[in-house]
Batch of 3 targets.
Target 1
Amino acid sequence: MGVEGIGARVVRKEDKRFITGKGRYVDDIKLTGMTHAHFIRSPHAHAKVKKIDSSAALKMPGVVAVLTGQQLVDDKVGNLICGWAITSKDGSPMKMGAWPAMAPETVRFVGQAVAVVIADSKNLARDAAEAVVVDYEELPAVADMQSAIKAGAPQLHPEAPGNQVYDWVIGDDGAVSAAFSKAANVVKLDVTNNRLAPNAMEPRAAIADYDAAEEHFTLYTTSQNPHVARLVLSAFYNIAPEHKLRVIAPDVGGGFGSKIFIYPEEMVALWASKKVGRPVKWTGDRTEAFLTDAHGRDHVTHAEMAFDANNKIIGLKVKTYANFGAYMSLFSSSVPTYLYATLLSGQYNIPAIHAEVIGVYTNTTPVDAYRGAGRPEASYLIERLMETAARQLKVDPAALRRTNFITQFPHQTPVIMAYDTGDFNASLDAAMKAIDYAGFANRKAQAKSQGKLRGIGVSCYIEACGIAPSKAVGSLGAGVGLWESAEVRVNPVGTIEILTGSHSHGQGHETTFCQLVADRLGVPISQVSIVHGDTDKVQFGMGTYGSRSAAVGLTAILKAMEKMESKAKKIAAHALEASEADIVIENGEFKVTGTDKAIAFPMVALAAYTAHNLPDGMEPGLKESAFYDPTNFTFPAGTYICELEVDPGTGKTSFVNFVAADDFGRLINPMIVEGQVHGGLVQGIGQALLEHAIYDANGQPVTASFMDYAMPRADDVPSFNLSHTTTLCPGNPLGIKGCGEAGAIGASAAVINAITDAIGKNNLEMPATPDRVWRTINAA
Amino acid sequence: MYQTTYHRASSVDEAASLFGKSSEAKFLAGGQTLLPVMKQRLASPSDVIDLAKIKDMIGVEASGDTLTIKAATTHYDVATSDAAKKAIPALAYLASLIGDPAVRYRGTIGGSIANNDPAADYPAALLALDATVKTNKRSIAAGDFFKGLFTTALEDGEIITAVSFPVPAKAGYAKMRHPASRFALTAVFVAQTKSGEIRVAATGASQSGVMRVGAIEAALKANWSPSAIDSVNIPASGLLADIHGTADYRANLVKVMAQRAVAAAG
Ligand SMILES: Cc1cc2nc3c(=O)[nH]c(=O)nc-3n(C[C@H](O)[C@H](O)[C@H](O)COP(=O)(O)OP(=O)(O)OC[C@H]3O[C@@H](n4cnc5c(N)ncnc54)[C@H](O)[C@@H]3O)c2cc1C
């Protein structure tokens, strides 16, 4: 592998600039003549916008314009879209309520923009915003799903009677009924998957710059997928055709899904920049992040699992209500359907599964993909069910899982997914050994003698990553293909630029992607640079989410590398007067195998560009590109086991140990993988213990700051004990499965299974706050 | 933040006179409460008068049976002060639990008690230790100083200069942290004065701010031990309730934290 090749723990190249404060984020960019936008947002969860009086504001110093939703309509700027079409069980299409970037008539959640002030400075814009008088007529609001689906509930969209987005089903209802009718045991569970606010460290921001002479826009934005942003802005919002719109996503400080989507603010900035003839900048603050970044999760589910007399699962039925918030965000429709219900088989052989998912509108912030997106909800449900079943059937929870593990691959589940490979026993074994599962009973007894309730919880997760085969997702309603592109540009001096459609916003691509090049060519990673995040530089790309950048993005780079190497070998063979078949690449040299004849890679590159002595008919230059479309999803899987103690006096949970045994296929940089797992686990633990985006009955957010919304801090989480078991993914040449979401997918169930084990009561909702745990312990 | 004029005072008198000359002035100490509120445009003082650099307002001193903490002393300095750790270790411990390091490096005791947040830590210590608040005008007993939520006996323009604490025979503090803010979800300070009086104060619990807990004081007077509190009944009525803690839970915490504080006091 070499010191910088695949598998090496290479220190991250990008960290020098990040930890010395030299990162270049959208808000760091200042353009000549730049104006600043401040949005006027609805304080009401549901209201009619009667009148907007901006006359006083327009007279204030430094105010350039006050623009409203009606002007957007007048200028024919398109409504926001949802890019994945889902069909209800009755054959009708999903019911999409119109979502204008600023509301001309009706606001449907607190924080929805109705107007924007453009001024010479942010402070002047804020001052003027206070002088704009918006006359609202409040309407009854509904914030929780159970109320929203009741007859007589306030209705959000005329397009969606009963506040229903869709009623979608998957699986074989008849087979499931047959299984339940012959079940020896049935286990039932109701679970809530709590709503989360993603809270990337960097808030969203945008700068739009319209060049009237060229009729050309440049947008700097905090995006995980700048090309998709350009595509959507061009194709649906009528902003500008693609060749007249350059989208740049420079350093981006975390996304977790929330920066996949196209939001009103960047659309308005683009439109406003043309209207005022100057660049327009908007940087959200933390309150705006809480109010407007798409939230995650928010499911309410009833599930039943049928077992035969040998404790084998014979059927599963699931009914889930999924909260969409007030509007359908870009990929929201796919999250509780194809990203959720297709994973309901977990790691288990389940012959019959049926799931029904009902999407519901409420007067809350829109909900969309958040780290894991649908898969954490599925994994949490299945792993809570398995634990509940073990308790009900009085068998060891690890043993029950083992009885039901899938052991033959490939395995076709009843819910679309075909698992390619895995070894679920291996990761369970590794985790049980790491935590000394066998010694737990003793430790529990010892803790009891000290007045502490100790518990252990297992979670065996599986996820579908490497998103995704374009043809497959197309057949399921996706509006885009999910391949990736890459270009390898070798400069005449032999340095290498890799252009990728993946986007790094914390994942370390500038290091891992270089490691592939170092591995293949034996050149130091300092000779390689990664170019991403600019639609003018990279031809096209689908961006980073769904743990896809290594499995899909890096494979595209590999394909382009192979083409480049093939041409370079021809040049080397020609120069060395050898046969191309005899050329091998070693330590930065092209060698004739079995001889000491060699030519250094930079000399090959130079030869390609001087073109003085190339093989007959060969084009000069050394640059190749490739598109890679995966043939299947990848299936990272693993076991997490958590051991913790509950203080019965306060209900507070303290971790004793947390082990993770993951199978991610091949690891490019184990250190970066560990970092990804740590971050994911912390988010999973955050969901289990701390985080909850809450609305009151009138749709007012209760948790719109860090003083109320509990983000996990370093001292809330344990030191993790990580290990890996490996089955290589057969679907891509590098054998990669992806590691970006696993922690967030698997951790929550391990924590709740452990707490419920500790307190001896099975029903406990997330977040398991000390108050909630204490009340559960003391409940009759 | 709205426009404001910043002044750095070099003495208490200068600060008081600057206050008198401005239309709507605010004193600034650590800024951990005032600045976030100004940034959110919820406060708009015409003038901000910084007390944090006034030399006479910084420092911790023990003399005889009194520990004096000057008003602009940061939480970090109290937590790490040898004098405080020796005289009243429970007080230094309390300071070490406030917020996070950034808050402790800036936030001050004077700012904390002037603000009188119902979940702040120091008010419990002041009340349980029967401390005296010194201002540029007078001395105020802790029992008279705290007047309910975010309200104190301070007059407009009055500056807290120091807090003096009688050194107790025993004292202990136990805090259940609010999971998000790290303020007290409920915390209890217990003290046994050198004259034998038992004083117990709870913060984060009551709807009317920091409070003495008479029932626990009585139980501890009869028997200074954690188990003495087992049979005390703390009613949930009048206690705070929010997404992080119901009133019942806080009532339980008053007891449990008091027990742990007694155990810590020894
Ligand atoms: C994230 C976070 C977590 C926190 N956690 C805790 C916690 O766990 N426990 C806790 O107790 N507190 C906590 N705090 C509050 C913190 O302790 C502050 O330091 C305190 O509330 C105010 O002190 P300050 O010096 O920052 O005052 P400032 O913010 O500067 O001022 C606060 C108020 O006091 C007035 N004032 C300041 N000094 C004087 C004076 N000498 N005389 C008269 N008036 C004065 C000011 O005019 C202003 O009205 C937290 C704060 C934050 C931001």
Note: Chain B has three domains: 5-50, 59-166, 170-265.
Target 2
Amino acid sequence: MSADTRNRSGLAGALRDLPRNVWNSIFRNPVPSNDVERSATTFTNFFLHIHPVKVHPNSLRPIYTMGLGLISFFLFLILVLTGIALMFYYVPATSQAYDRMLDLRGSVAFGTILRNMHRWAAHGMVAVVFLHMCRVFFTGAYKKPREFNWVLGVVLFLVTLLLSFTGYLLPWDQLAFWAITVGAAIAGYAPVVGKEIQFLLMGGNAVGQEALLRFYVLHVAVLPAVMTVLVAVHFWRIRKDGGLSRPPEAEIKPDLEVTRPPAVLDPKRTYGLQGLVRGPLTRVGDLPDNELYSWPHLFRAELFVLVVTVSVILLLSLAFNAPLEEPVNALHPPNPAKAPWYFLGLQEMVSYSAFWGGIGVPGIFVLLLLLTPYLDRNPKGVGKWFAKERLLANTVFLTFVVVNVIFVIIGTFFRGPNWAFVTPW
Amino acid sequence: MTVNLKRSSPGGAQEPGRRSMLGLLTGAGLAGSGLLGVISNLVFIKPRATYGQPQRFTIGKPDDFPTGSRVALQAQKICVVREGDKLAAVSTVCTHLGCTVGLSETGFACPCHGSRFDHDGVVTGGPAPKPLPWYKVTLAPNGEIEVDKDTEVPSGSYLSL
Ligand code: HEM
Ligand code: FES
């Protein structure tokens, strides 16, 4: 299993063995060529050990997950890397921020492509995280024992939106300024604490230097840290909840002593601590095991998704430039002043009633989302897209998705000056 | 390997009173510190001084505003209304979502979502839920007009010159 470790003697020998010894000190296992080595590599490599050694074939079916969670994660990685690069040139000051945007475009090497990648990955992440949520819903994957991971997911979705929202102000152009003015005012409609929240968010009575600094700190430090921790817990829970959801008929039925409760353990035998917590893991006899080794099946799939995600973002960034409008003019709002596209559904509702559109209805939606796994206790239909047993739940959710999308489309394309109805053609 | 499988009761077998008391105190101490932490962070994050445009400022002498005029002061986000001997300051911040309203024939109009207000700032159309507030206006000893945006006055209350 381990590589050849016979060393040559003397200093010359040590030098000649140096590359091999350094390599072997980093990688404990050779490139796997049998099942034991495949297991060992997955266990002992820090970056691989968050994966199970073997995965169920259902988890690898591209049309089951569509890789959407993974794409969300890779987009987050792209955002962290390009974001850190942008921080080297950005200054969160009202007198400089906009000029720094022009510098990125004009005089910083790779500035344009970095900014484009950051912008398109951010838009993409909002969309993909939302689609991932839809996938989880339509496959019934939030059911016992995965309720809490769904709740974590809803929080992750909100953090994703907050990251986008705080980043939106940073270029300090007209678009940014008025979108944030409008967005912060929506927060002001929350009952009792609304005005207070608006004041804390803006660090004053209007969007200005304090607001820019606050949004910057939230955007580059606080929210990414929260996101990182939550994503880590999300991933950990996937493992502890028994891997990805799958249809019950695909479940391996361990008819052996896998889940005997600790109380009836045989006192004459010796158990590992893990065995005490989860039941002894010894499997004897012919267990139907059609699971596949993560190396290479899962890792190859993940690498493929990574390459596709990065390529798409790169191509988009080469083809389209991130928008930059006029510098901020606090005296003249553009007409109409529009929020970022994913908030346009919200803004459309807000144009009917600020409280209900901005706080009431979205608040109820988020609450319903958080409670979904606890309200829908029908255990059937897990692991299949649009299962017949979940017709009601899926119809309700689909309606909610379609209504949202329609509102976003109206807000984006059908609203003109004075928020009057216009036709885009 | 010996493993203890008995569930320990919170008090433990011996000295139940003392143990649970200690547990209770520890819990209360931690909860209290947590609460204090949250409160002090909230206090910290709330700015004591605000920067930028002050809430109280002077805008010049009454003569700068001829009778019958409506002058929008863009930086201060107010509109100074002068009618005969009376003068007032009306906010030009839309009560819907905070865009700056412009002056129109019939009063004020907001470009963002189309709210309209009459000359007194009363909503005549659009999503704005409240009229534009009026601010307290006084005459400073040196004859300058002073506006206090921290104090709202009922609409229609003018300063008599
Ligand atoms: C930053 C955002 C998120 C990231 C990076 C992320 C990542 C992932 C990944 C990599 C998986 C593995 C399966 C797959 O790729 O589909 C997964 C599964 C899951 N996610 Fe997320 N996710 C995010 C947001 C959400 C949201 C918004 C929800 C729902 C509200 C959610 C709920 C779940 C659940 C319940 C599973 C388990 C699904 C199953 O067992 O089939 N996640 N997530
Ligand atoms: S901010 Fe004036 S109408 Fe919305």
Note: The first strand of chain A starts at residue 54 and ends at 55.
Target 3
Amino acid sequence: MIRFEGITKRYDQQTVISDISFEIEKGELVVIIGSSGCGKTTLLKIVNRLIRPTSGRVYINGADTAAQDEIELRRNIGYVIQQTGLFPHMTVRENIEIIPRLKRVNRADVEARSVELMRMVGLDPAQFLDRYPSQLSGGQQQRVGVARAFACDPEVILMDEPFSALDPLTRVQLQDELADLQARVRKTIVFVTHDMDEAVKIADRICLIHEGGVVQYDTVEAVMKYPANEFVADFIGRNRIWSSPAFIRARDIMIQTPVCASADTTVMRCIERMRTRKVDSLLITGENMRMLGIISAREMQTCEDRGVPVSRVMRRQFEKVSPDENIVEVLQIVNRGGLSAVPVLDEAGTVVGLITRSSLLTTLSRPYLDETEAATS
Amino acid sequence: MNLFTFLVQSAGEIATRLFQHLQLTLLSIFIATALGVPLGVLISYRRRMKKPVMGVANVVQAIPSIALLGFLIPILGIGEKPAVFMVVVYSLLPIIKNTVTGLSGINAETLEAAKGIGMTRIQVLTKVKLPLALPVIMAGVRISAVTSVGLVTLAAFIGANGLGYLIYSGIRTLNDYQILAGAVPACLLALLMDFLFSLVEKMVTPACFKQN
Ligand SMILES: Nc1ncnc2c1ncn2[C@@H]1O[C@H](COP(=O)(O)OP(=O)(O)OP(=O)(O)O)[C@@H](O)[C@H]1O
Ligand SMILES: [Mg+2]
């Protein structure tokens, strides 16, 4: 949808952006993030040609933006900045309708659209359309800014720290609303911020910029779990993942080589294996590691004939989780069943791992232990 | 004869002179605004022109008005033409200055937004810049309007009409009443101008600034 190709921007001797290339998919919300002055705004403004790159090109839907009429280009791209972006001498209605009117869109259509847009951003049209921006709260002003960006129903919307001047509560509220709105309308949104919490909240993908280049461009989850380098890890904060437990998945915390036994192993052998491996339950598998059942040490102790295959005494009904289930879901399953361990199976029912109470404990205690280690070192 | 009977006797002439005076003043302000605002706009776009234009306007302002009138006689002759020219020249500076100030006082991000959402340069000027700068521009026009009333009285020295004629002939004939008959209405006219233009200023102030 939006493709940056070898974008470089130099001011005199200072190179702000050097040779950035990446592509934003249609319908994704990409957050461009980085420390102050790293060139986020510059990169954003290159998209709607408020800034001309020293070299490189931006393609939208395969068309080189440099070859298009810049007024036409901008009218087809929504643009939201901080509250100062609203025209103070125009009412909310006039602000929203300015471009459609300049485009000479039919009057009735424009008016109907304004009402629709106001509802979309959660403002009562009757109450707010004829007010001036100065008669609105900061949060309301930003909603109007968002509504204006949607006025011509653009495919691409650019947002430059639209919520950064708001108080924390309002900010979070607007972030949530933007995420909801985006889930419904699926626009291609490029959102600049320097706030990682904000990025985690709203982004499909994060583009982290440092020293003029893209250090990592990936999904929020991937950036948090597999930071490309030390800088990224520091920037996102090492314990960041703990504030978004939905991103911690079963596959990240499971024991990857659980102790298993095939179905025809005798109970005797199984007890032996448990003792030597110091575990209190065994996963019983068939062909290709397909899980058939589970048995605990206690259940085996009560078994009288220890010569029979374990498949005769194992439990065939058991709780399981898929590798992509997140830690919250895993905890719920473990607690509900009062389980000491829960196997992780893929779609084919193959054993890929095991989560035990102690592996959960280890995972959950990590942020606190890391902190104390950091404090004592 | 006392002042009162003098005024009653010459009421007709005073009214005519006052009307002429008003005409000259308004004409001058109109021309000065029509020239000053575009000049100010031009300067605000072309930074390099700011120094020379403001320099010239400042120097002109510094020339004593009577001297300027004298210089103008060989070029424009006598009568209303040089008079209006002189008043315009003096009125330009406050109008240009305020136009430039008004335009440069607009929040840069507001302008960037205007550009960013797809307004052309002309649209940015007419829909955003001028409406936002208008109160400041009008304040400049108001200053000019008030000083113009005084300047137009001087025009009588080179044969222009207006209240200055009464003052001028009053001085020559040592007729205090006549001087007053010109000066007092001129004074009142200046106050009236100030009042009228303050109304205009309020009218053009965008509603959003009034409430605060
Ligand atoms: N017109 C300009 N002339 C020279 N240097 C500039 C100009 N505009 C921006 N810069 C420089 O380019 C760099 C990047 O600016 P930019 O506004 O893109 O930063 P940013 O990442 O948006 O920062 P912030 O988070 O503070 O908004 C800065 O170091 C800035 O000083
Ligand atoms: Mg910025």
Note: Residues 11-45 of chain B form the longest helix (35 residues).
